[in-house]
């Protein structure tokens, strides 16, 4: 090996060793707590400053200072974060969105605090702890890595750590002190962060913004190791370090050189982009992290006050007015986050990139330096920049289609860092670039007035996006993505729309910001700003345009009136505390967490009142308006005969306020009151069977009753086979759901009922077999497309949209479903008894029985031909089940094909035309309910 190669390899190993340290720390913290610590780099920076302070400012001995920094300050900081920030969140349920925002909050807080304490400028006198030669650093990494690996595999603590990571609650039940494990994980992670910081600081710029970001770039190493395998993390870190240094030897000519230099200097960013965008996402266990909550209605007059406050700067002059110029521009940038994060529920840490691109493109277009385009006047340049940047929204929109939560946070962060490093920081893109203001708006006052006009336009655009059909679909997607798909929402297209609109708004704001500053300043669009803006919008009400205006005023005002860093520190504190205030932005999320069968055990007083009004005095059948033909004789099983369940099935879900009388002993299952066992009504309904609501109108989505109506298509499955890894969950299943019939599937837990249901609904794709709707093969059709064809479904675990009202929930179904029928919402609400005061209540917090009706109403409003119901009676009381049965019978009588997967055999007996029994992934018996269920009852014994 030549001496140059050798030297470069050693230098690369040195950098790689520092990255490996961070990778080890990030993985251990993640394993111990489930939190990807976004503050890792900020902790590294703080520790580097502490060491420098001890040695340079106070003149303390290096090794004493290092011991204090690494063995006391760093672990102490980690333990304090665990105790005061993350433990309270995990006690509250550990919502991944909250922990993510909290860790970004800690990042922002530490960065702001460091800027306040030590000033925003860079230091070049950080003390050298380990010499630049790599052997010492490599030895540190090797010892640490080996100790951690042995510790995790061989020690009791390691076993406890793995137990906590797998299932914190189960581990606690098993006697593990999860808090101690998490505290140790945080302390160790912070120690490694501190070590990375003090090792790196002498060789890079030590400043509050640069070092944290540099350290966070190495998160790529941990992601590449799937947040799990330490050896992979170390190998990747060392490999990238060496490759990065070797790249400095290459000197291609022409355009290749600056590009190669950029790549060579930022190989960890390239790795981050690949790891975050190309590798399967981390954090798969973070189901449905949603950083947005219910939109709190702005108090009356708040908009007027905001309007007056935003007009006030027109009366200012000089420096104050010059500072105020940033507020409308930043407001527009933050509005982009209201659309993407607040309304669409998509985490976006990369908005600063779009804002920067807006400013850069505006400057290039106005200077006539944009390739292929002529020089444009400033305002036209701004408009053109918005148009050019908008499609780039797919850079983050595309990853969002298949990612959520932590994986999406990483992907958007990676894009932000990538654009910053490969575009904003490159002299070929930005050198000598200036940015003027539009002609006639050169003075601060005139420019501020122009900004207000642009802000008003942006507010109107946001209002249009958030209101109406698109706004409701966005909110539905945010509240419950699977529920939105089931309602027919085209989720991937909607995500792209959210990100493209967000990119356009951010570009507009960024361009305005650049014109306000009269320059393209890459620092103004640094990825750290992206984190700060995200945190600011989330803490001040993600789904509130007024919150965005307030956040912009706060960010600009705090930093202008005081030392730089105050705004970040304040936002950081708020972000750290955000999940802990009842009624805060996460209230709706917590409510969403309660939306499970038997979830909200105590209805709110208002909910209880509504419920009483809807159901009448207890006990008794619920007065849910149903089809005219649904008579008392059709009222389903007698109260007191319910409760028979599939042998091996799960116990009954808790019933509501109506309670449940004891089951009648010895009663043969499947003999509903008023209907002799086995005797069924005619299955094929005539047109006259169309249910009428109280006002005589046809029920929602019904077909016009004409004699010439073609036969309705049914749903059919042939030879379905589904495998989960090596396990066969469905094995050659055939099923037909004819129009006008109720088909039921029963079977013990784990039989494959839900898997079959998912195949029909489009959420699981079989490895073999076909699903047909009429003559059409729909095996590969996604869920939302099936809904639009007329195959609607409900969920075993409720999938309503908690931040939308009952009526809006139903409206989403009507707007996205098979038929666009303006009257469907009202008719469906009436049909299911939801047209009273309850229609205007947000779904969050309503009783389970009401929410089941809301979900059913949403499905019906789409005008389905096939209705798939997964345990529709779970969590309902006897009267509610009876009312549900009446509605379902009426629907079948009207020609809808119904599938009911249900454990409640009495409901099945009273409802179904044909029952299929599933066991171990196969249908083992089929027939009329009387025969099949009696046989099942005998098999179950007395
Ligand atoms: N995503 C998955 N990955 C691996 N195995 C799965 C998955 N989903 C289901 N299974 C397994 O497939 C089998 C069938 O599950 P399925 O949920 O379809 O049964 P089920 O009859 O609906 O049960 P239940 O009544 O409890 O809902 C079970 O053994 C289950 O553990």
UniProtKB/TrEMBL annotation:
Transmembrane intervals: 6-28, 35-51, 63-85, 97-119, 134-152, 183-203, 209-225, 230-247, 259-279, 300-317, 323-340, 352-373, 379-398, 405-424, 446-465, 496-520, 532-558, 565-583
InterPro entries in the record: AAA+_ATPase, ABC_AA/LPS_Transport, ABC_transp_permease, ABC_transporter-like_ATP-bd, P-loop_NTPase
UniProt-annotated location(s): Cell membrane
Principal subcellular localization: membrane
Gene3D superfamilies from the UniProt entry: P-loop containing nucleotide triphosphate hydrolases (3.40.50.300)
Domain ABC transporter: 715-939
Residue numbers spanned by region Disordered: 591-715
Name of the protein in its database record: ABC transporter domain-containing protein
Organism: Streptomyces prasinosporus
């Amino acid at each position: 090996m030549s001496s140059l190669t050798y030297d470069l390899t050693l230098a690369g190993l040195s950098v790689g060793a520092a990255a490996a340290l961070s990778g080890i720390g990030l993985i251990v913290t993640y394993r111990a707590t489930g939190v990807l610590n976004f503050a890792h780099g900020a902790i590294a920076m703080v520790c580097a400053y502490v060491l420098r302070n001890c040695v340079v400012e106070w003149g303390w001995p290096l090794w004493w200072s290092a011991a204090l920094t690494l063995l006391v300050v760093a672990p102490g900081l980690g333990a304090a974060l665990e105790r005061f920030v993350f433990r309270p969140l995990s006690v509250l349920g550990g919502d991944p969105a909250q922990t993510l925002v909290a860790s970004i909050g800690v990042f922002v807080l530490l960065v702001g605090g460091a800027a306040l304490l030590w000033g925003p400028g860079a230091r070049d006198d950080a003390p050298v702890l380990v010499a630049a030669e790599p052997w010492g650093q490599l030895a540190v990494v090797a010892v640490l890595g080996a100790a951690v690996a042995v510790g995790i595999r061989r020690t009791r603590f390691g076993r406890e750590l793995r137990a906590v990571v797998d299932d914190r609650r189960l581990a606690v039940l098993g006697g593990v002190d999860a808090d101690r494990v998490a505290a140790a994980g945080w302390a160790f992670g912070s120690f490694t962060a501190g070590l990375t910081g003090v090792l790196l600081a002498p060789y890079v710029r030590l400043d509050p913004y640069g070092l944290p970001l540099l350290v966070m770039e190495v998160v790529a190493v941990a992601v590449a190791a799937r947040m799990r395998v330490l050896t992979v993390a170390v190998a990747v870190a060392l490999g990238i370090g060496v490759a990065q240094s070797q790249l400095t030897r290459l000197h291609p000519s022409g355009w290749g050189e600056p590009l190669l230099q950029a790549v060579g200097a930022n190989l960890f960013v390239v790795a981050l982009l690949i790891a975050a965008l190309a590798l399967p996402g981390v954090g798969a266990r973070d189901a449905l992290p949603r950083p947005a909550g219910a939109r709190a209605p702005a108090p009356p007059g708040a908009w007027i006050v905001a309007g007056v406050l935003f007009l006030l700067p027109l009366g200012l002059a000089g420096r104050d007015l010059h500072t105020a110029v940033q507020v409308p521009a930043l407001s527009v940038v933050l509005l982009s986050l209201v659309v993407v994060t607040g309304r669409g529920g998509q985490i976006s840490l990369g908005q600063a990139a779009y804002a920067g691109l807006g400013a850069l493109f505006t400057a290039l277009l106005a200077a006539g330096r944009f390739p292929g385009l002529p020089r444009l006047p400033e305002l036209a340049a701004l408009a053109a920049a918005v148009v050019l940047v908008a499609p780039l929204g797919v850079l983050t929109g595309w990853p969002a289609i298949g990612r959520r939560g932590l994986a999406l946070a990483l992907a958007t962060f990676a894009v932000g860092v990538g654009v910053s490093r490969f575009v904003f920081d490159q002299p070929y893109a930005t050198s000598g670039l200036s940015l003027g203001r539009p002609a006639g708006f050169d003075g601060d006052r005139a420019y501020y007035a122009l900004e207000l006009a642009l802000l008003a336009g942006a507010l109107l655009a946001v209002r249009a996006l958030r209101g109406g059909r698109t706004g409701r679909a966005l909110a539905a997607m945010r509240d419950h993505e699977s529920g939105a798909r089931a309602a027919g929402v085209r989720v991937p297209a909607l995500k792209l729309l959210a990100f493209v609109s967000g990119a356009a708004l951010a570009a507009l704001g960024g361009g305005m910001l650049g014109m306000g500053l009269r320059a393209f300043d890459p620092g103004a669009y640094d990825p750290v700003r992206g984190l700060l803006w995200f945190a600011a919008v989330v803490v001040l009400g993600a789904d509130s345009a007024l919150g965005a205006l307030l956040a912009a005023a706060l960010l600009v005002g705090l930093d202008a009136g005081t030392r730089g860093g105050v705004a970040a520190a304040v936002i950081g504190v708020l972000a750290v505390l955000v999940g802990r205030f009842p009624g805060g932005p996460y209230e709706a999320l917590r409510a969403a967490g309660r939306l499970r069968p038997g979830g909200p055990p105590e209805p709110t007083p208002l909910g209880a009142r509504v419920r009483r009004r809807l159901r009448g005095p207890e006990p008794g059948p619920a007065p849910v308006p149903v089809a005219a033909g649904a008579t008392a004789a059709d009222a389903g099983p007698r109260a007191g005969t319910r409760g028979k369940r599939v042998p091996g099935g799960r116990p009954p879900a808790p019933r509501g306020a109506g309670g449940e009388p004891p089951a009648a002993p010895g009663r043969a299952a499947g003999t509903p009151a008023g209907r002799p066992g086995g005797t069924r009504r005619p299955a094929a309904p005539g047109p006259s069977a169309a249910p009428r609501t109280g006002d005589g109108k046809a029920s929602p989505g019904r077909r016009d009753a004409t004699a010439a109506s073609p036969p309705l298509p049914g749903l059919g499955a042939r030879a379905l086979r589904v495998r989960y890894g090596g396990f066969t969950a469905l094995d050659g299943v055939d099923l037909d759901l004819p129009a006008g019939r109720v088909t039921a599937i029963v079977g013990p837990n784990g039989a494959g009922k839900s898997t079959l249901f998912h195949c029909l609904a489009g959420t699981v794709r079989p490895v073999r077999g076909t699903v047909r709707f009429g003559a059409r093969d729909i095996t590969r059709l996604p869920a939302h497309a099936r809904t639009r064809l007329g195959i609607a479904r409900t969920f075993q675990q409720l999938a309503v949209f908690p931040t939308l009202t009952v009526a809006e929930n139903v409206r989403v179904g009507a707007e996205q479903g098979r038929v666009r029928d303006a009257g469907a919402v009202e008719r469906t609400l009436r049909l299911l008894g939801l047209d009273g005061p309850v229609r205007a209540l947000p779904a969050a917090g309503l009783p389970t029985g009401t929410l089941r009706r809301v979900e059913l109403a949403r499905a019906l409003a789409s005008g389905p031909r096939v209705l798939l119901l997964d345990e529709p009676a779970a969590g309902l009381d006897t009267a509610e089940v009876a009312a549900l049965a009446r509605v379902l019978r009426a629907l079948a009588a009207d020609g809808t094909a119904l599938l009911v997967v249900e454990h409640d055999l009495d409901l099945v007996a009273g409802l179904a035309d044909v029952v299929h029994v599933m066991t171990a992934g196969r249908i083992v018996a089929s027939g009329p309910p009387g025969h099949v269920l009696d046989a099942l009852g005998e098999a179950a014994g007395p």
